[in-house]
Amino acid sequence: MIRAHVAALLAYVDKLDPGRAPTTQEAALERLDAWADVLLEVEPRAPHPEGHDWDASHVVRHHIASSPYPIKPSDVSRPWYAFRADVIRRHAGTFEPRLHPEIDPDAAPGREYFAAVRGSMRAVLSGEQPPVTIRAIGPAALAPETPQQAYQREELVRRMKAGHRAGREENARRLALVSQFPDLLAEMHRLPGQRMWRGSVGGNRRVAAIVAEAEARAAASTNIREEQPA
């Protein structure tokens, strides 16, 4: 909480329990300083995936209504940390790349990716973003495969492996092609997320343009050699 939130919460405490309110401005300021220190990481409100949302004022009201002891800042901070731990326990940690256009989808996980992951976790911790509670669907118990199903599965695996192999070969071809032209390779490495480019294009139009330029140069060079007399 920021200091203004803590001051508002203490005003609510004094409204519910006026007999224990500070009698001097100095005492009120000392109490505000102490509460602000303890509640620095506590949010005034935060959502819960099952609707049991956090509200610091509700914690204050419950304590004053149920406890004969004066309320302390730890009476608010302890329930907050328990609430936060429960929310994080329910958070599946699913990361949605489409919400982070600053991350290059073709780049290996690096500084931008991990910064986004940490930012997403901080948003869940602070209540700015609700936790994602949906996890991947696990495998169901299946009946034994029939011969036809086994053949279809093996054929699918074979095609997937062939597709991966063809993709790796195409990446290697593009990398070797662009590497023939140092200026194009340097331009490629200057693109965001392409410092360790390995031939992948994906949907990156700037990468595709550099590859196309390398192909055009290679084709022009081949034509020149073919036109020269033997």
Helix-strand layout with pairing:
Blueprint: H1 3-16, H2 25-38, E1 45-46, E2 54-55, H3 56-66, H4 74-90, H5 111-126, H6 147-179, H7 182-190, H8 205-227
Antiparallel strand pairs: 1-2
Describe the structure.
The chain is an all-alpha fold and 230 residues long. 60% of the residues lie in helices and 2% in strands. The protein is built from 8 helices and 2 strands. It has helices spanning 3-16, 25-38, 56-66, 74-90, 111-126, 147-179, 182-190, 205-227, and strands at residues 45-46, 54-55. A hairpin with a 7-residue loop joins strand 1 and strand 2 (54-55). The longest helix has 33 residues, at 147-179. The chain is elongated, with a radius of gyration of 30 Å.
Keywords:
60% helix; 8 helices; 2 strands; two-stranded antiparallel ribbon; mainly alpha; 230 residues
